[in-house]
Amino acid sequence: MCNYCGCRDFPLIGRLSAEHVEIGEVARTLRMAVDRAAYAEARDLLDDLLALLLPHTAEEERGLFAELREEGTLAGEVDRLCGEHAEIHGVLAAVDRADPDWDRVLGAVKRLHEHIDKEEHGLFPASVIVLPIPAWDRITA
Asked: Which domain of life is it from (predicted)?
């Protein structure tokens, strides 16, 4: 996570970034559990990850992303990121708990890490520049 642009001073961005840290920690712990074949722990961590991820992405999409799409400048990037949300959720939510495809899970976790990086170092700083104050008032309320 960067600390150079000041975007985390915006309360919504600060909260979403803090959630990214928590999501990233659970995802890393999940990866480590799979790597050491602690599959019961990995299943629990997968559930923990989804419990964090689903409300987080819903908030991004109905708040910040909706305002960015409406503003227009970053609409294409927002669409790509929403597609990544759907892809990552689709993989993680569809895991067969009786016979998980851990390679597929790890692929989605890697994609999640890359996705968070795009938001943290691209979309969040850019959103501070392109969104007018009334938009921030709407999504922070």
From this structure: Bacteria
pLDDT, residue 12, reads 86
The residue behind tokens 């759907």 is 86
Query: In one letter, which amino acid is 119?
Result: E
Domain count, the chain: 1
- Helices 11-35 and 64-71 pack at an angle, to 10 degrees, of 120
The DSSP output letter for 5 is S
Q: What CATH number is given to the structural domain containing 63? A: 1.20.120.520
| Interval 119-130: pLDDT, tens | 999 999 999 999
Residue 136 is assigned to a structural domain of this protein: yes
The helix/strand/coil state of 38 is coil
DSSP assignment letter at 72:
-
Q: In the Cβ-directed half-sphere of 95, how many Cα atoms lie within 13 Å?
A: 25
3 occurs within a structural domain? no
For residue 117, CA distances in Å to 10, 93, 97, 103 come to 18, 22, 28, 21
Q: Is residue 16 part of a domain?
A: yes
What type of residue is 2? C
